[in-house]
Amino acid sequence: MGKLISSIMIANRGEIALRVIRACKELQIKSIALYSDEDLKSKHVKSADEAYYIGPAAPTKSYLNIDKIIEIAESAGAEAVHPGYGFLSENETFAAKCEEKGIIFIGPTSEAMALTGDKMKCKEIMKKAEVPTIPGSDDILEEVDKAVEIAEEAGYPVLLKSAFGGGGRGIRFADNEKQLREEFEMASAESRAAFGKSGLYVEKFLKGIRHIEFQLARDSNGNGVHLFERECSVQRRHQKLIEFSPSSVVDKKTRSKIGDIAVRAAESVDYLNAGTAEFLRDEKGNFYFIEVNSRLQVEHPVTELITGIDLVKLQIKIACGDEIPFKQSDLNFNGSAVECRINAEDPFHDFVPSNGYVPDCNLPYGPGVRVDTYLYPGCNVSGYYDSLVAKLITWGADFDEARIRMSNALDEFMIEGIHTTIPLYRTIMKEKNFIKGNISTDYLEKYDLINLMKTQSKEKSLKTSDASIAAALVYSEYLKGQNSPSNSSKELSLSNWVQTGNIKNGI
Amino acid sequence: MGKLISSIMIANRGEIALRVIRACKELQIKSIALYSDEDLKSKHVKSADEAYYIGPAAPTKSYLNIDKIIEIAESAGAEAVHPGYGFLSENETFAAKCEEKGIIFIGPTSEAMALTGDKMKCKEIMKKAEVPTIPGSDDILEEVDKAVEIAEEAGYPVLLKSAFGGGGRGIRFADNEKQLREEFEMASAESRAAFGKSGLYVEKFLKGIRHIEFQLARDSNGNGVHLFERECSVQRRHQKLIEFSPSSVVDKKTRSKIGDIAVRAAESVDYLNAGTAEFLRDEKGNFYFIEVNSRLQVEHPVTELITGIDLVKLQIKIACGDEIPFKQSDLNFNGSAVECRINAEDPFHDFVPSNGYVPDCNLPYGPGVRVDTYLYPGCNVSGYYDSLVAKLITWGADFDEARIRMSNALDEFMIEGIHTTIPLYRTIMKEKNFIKGNISTDYLEKYDLINLMKTQSKEKSLKTSDASIAAALVYSEYLKGQNSPSNSSKELSLSNWVQTGNIKNGI
Amino acid sequence: MEFKINNLDEINTGSISQSSGNGKIIATINGKQHSIQIISLKNSILEFILDNSYKTAKILEYGSANIKILIDGEEIDIKKHSKLTEVLEKSTALGGASLGENKLLSQIPGRVVSIMLKVGDQVKKGDSIIVLESMKMQVAVKSHKEGKIRDIKVKVGDTVSRNDIVALIE
Amino acid sequence: MEFKINNLDEINTGSISQSSGNGKIIATINGKQHSIQIISLKNSILEFILDNSYKTAKILEYGSANIKILIDGEEIDIKKHSKLTEVLEKSTALGGASLGENKLLSQIPGRVVSIMLKVGDQVKKGDSIIVLESMKMQVAVKSHKEGKIRDIKVKVGDTVSRNDIVALIE
Hints:
By secondary structure, chain A is an alpha+beta fold. Helices cover 36% and strands 23% of the residues of chain A.
């Protein structure tokens, strides 16, 4: 192992900041946290070796404030910066600034990031490297007529996407020419408002597709490996909800074939550090490259559990110039892992955000259970930032064991004060298509999971109704006793004997 | 898989009851708990599907009360009983009672248990099966003269052990004839008082020995496997403190050789279900069989982490007549795992028991961390039962990763209100002989770990002294402000502005 | 006493039949007898064993006619009244008084990012009046009834809490 | 103010030099300036950032001369006095008054399983008088001084709490 650095600033917050801090602790590297006004009481501040104030709550004034972050990194003597995911993690300007100031950016070079960030340029490179891509435009489309032409060639329906979007935001669907012309106009205006340029492209819409991605790692000596796939098809509005590995449709041969393509994709842009090659798979089993995510992903723990590789420590070592300490052939696929993204959103009410104070919470644990979270009893879930409050990941010898452990862990996970997506995941874990691995990106709508969840919630209320009534009865009686004038009351009073059950300091 | 049962009563308490309840939940089997007066608020009562009152706090009146347990099992309709470890887990009378009543006992048959329980009988069988045993008496010694004769033959020093003891209790050391005669008399009286019979035997004392054991499983169809070794040499007064796997002195060849011997030992007593064959290893690398533990062991999670096999679920399936679903050759040794037994004892004061109310606690979590515990904020650690309050187990790709994760998890583990052995384990995890795997059963004394811990505790106090003084200063000033007549006080008052930092329900 | 649980249609009945004074109770719920052993009641958290099963309920709100409890990780609203059936019939007869309410409340906390309409505008039920941003998501506050906007209580950049009044509709 | 931490020999000095009124403090500890940002103080738990490092301290006991806090998972006893050095010198001069104490206290909670000596017996310091059982372990309560047993306050089968008087030695 090469010489490790002695300090890392984490330009992020929430669970991913905590994840990086854990890696730093294991490597005996000083961790330096940042906090906005909103985050003074956040767990990453408590866990890091040092914590510096970055600015007001709004992300642009704090976690997106490149100049301020660089300034603090320099004054705190940070030798490296870990950007986490989101915020500045795929910002090539930030990566370039770090390079300029001699601060190690834990991720790809700004150059590679620029390439992977521009989806059209990336697609072009992939085509040259003979990586299969989705039929559609080869370039950004300035005019709607060109879009219509390409759509006709690829065949309707098509998707209209922004080269600057990301994470599934702003994808539009068109079934015919009229729809395409309408959507093109709106999307173009929206993109210009947000990014100052249009940057739209057209892609063939694939039916019943799955989103399957390959974890990559590549070091500065040119060694590249893939760490198998993650199945990310359970989504809502193009946002991933559940990820697992292995995928039910990837066999050993396919894994090796697509994995090799992913590594080739990384090589073609001279990619450095950990990243992910995302693919779509159609019903016939064809894989199409869509993009490279040039950062650590939310769902990286799934890969950590099935390979035993600590990806964050690997990232740090690669950034320090180390070679990847294993070869492709050394990697063993071990068991199965599932992740649920616990979001502070109310699945019973169209997933409206649900932030606020969390008076109490209870993290699940036990064999095969891992939680990555910033929650603690008394914490605050801020409305200024992402709604992801926890990731629950379970391991099992096979998919079924991992799935059942997830189901039980979800039952054990209690978060008071906010609504979360936990009830939806409880339903999914026991839904027969999910159990069979019969999923696609429209899984939620196709099998009407939201209504299934609502029905099950009613059934659960019915099952616990006796207990609810009993609790209401006992509490009412207790208060009656408390409020009655004195002990002489002849009414049933619980106020004296509820004490008997109280904890005693027995020996 | 054969037909599973629908309900299991757990004749135990504490973390192991919770462990079995988790397995039941995964198999969708109803779990039935028992609780004594002391345990009304215990976590196993909260987690089980059903809970029944068993009797007063004293074990003989509750968790050791065979008739009462059988009675409740029958009235609750329990199809099987899991005995955990300790209490009735190795009680052949209890196992026989269950067999008689048609309740499945999750463990070996009463017959096999009788054989493994009688150490001398077991040793005899092992000798016949050509399993190496420690030089010493072949039989229980009624007279001290016979003991002296055998000691002379094997060579001093020797150990005097009770056939009815267990868990390392009551082992006596004799360096010469005079000492042996004295110890024999005392041990004999003690054993008669406790068990109604003497039952002593003599064994050669081995220098610098390690305690290494092999996990076994055997089904009713005669299939037997071993699940590799556990290194249990870090002990205090013959009580295991830390267990890990792989052992630093067991190579692949030795593992296979001794593992086979362990399986042969199980076969020779027609052993059923999960069990452990314990060995001593002398400095020359010779292994000597000492005993078979006919139960699930405290340290079973170590094996679960390196094999991916859920031993409790396996136990249940074997008890239902299933075949073990893997062969010896299917098992992969994956990474490394370490366990620390967190006992409610004060390592700074000769390990005196330290029970009582636990107002708050904080379980460690994160990549590679598993906790098996009955602790929760507001729980009570009873003085009536065992001092084990938690097991902390970490996994790593290699021993060093597991060890460092353990070290960090120990730092994260906060238990208020009682003293625990955590500070000792913190010291051990960073001690150079432990790091090198240079251990033996006298490791603690040999390297003076207790004093090392005390020194490090002082150093830690010194390191945090600034923070301690700062806290004392701030709190004193705060109280000064609170007690001062009014806001008109000119003294520095913190009472108003400590509010500013309080959590706000920010959006 | 009669009880109604929020998302269920049935009316439940319940009463305490016997209390032996050491935390043991016999209760009759929907005509069936149940044994209750109270473990503790502290900080609004009630722990008890109901027919050999442990239960914990956190009392979140307690009113004379409403109880809100957290049980098995779910929030349960319970209406109670000695003659709940009659009460519910009456309220149905009155016909959703809340619809006559002028105040438009924000259902979530958030920052106001845009105001789509102005005072005096005519709105239908479901028309978006204000857009809030929270957790990187945009959520519209929609009119709860048909009418005219009499007042808008917020401006762009304001932060609102749950149940804050954002507009008045007449 | 002077401070002494239980297991350390050094005397520390500390004072608050400046308070800017918004939770920010400058303190001088052992002659060095430190910045303190208070995060919160609630239920005896003090959270603060000391020179860019988060710290949490739970105040377990607070007296005019003693503070017991839980910091970094360890219990720390702090003696404080404006002139602690003088106080300590005096108390050393007085010479361990506690040794003159007659009461023998139990250091652990447990059940009395045997009483080894009887009233009137002569004991040396360290002689076992009573054996307690706790957590399946047997622990002897040993005489804290030389003398004669004047009274034994417990009998076999009793349960004692920490710091209960088990015997009087004269």
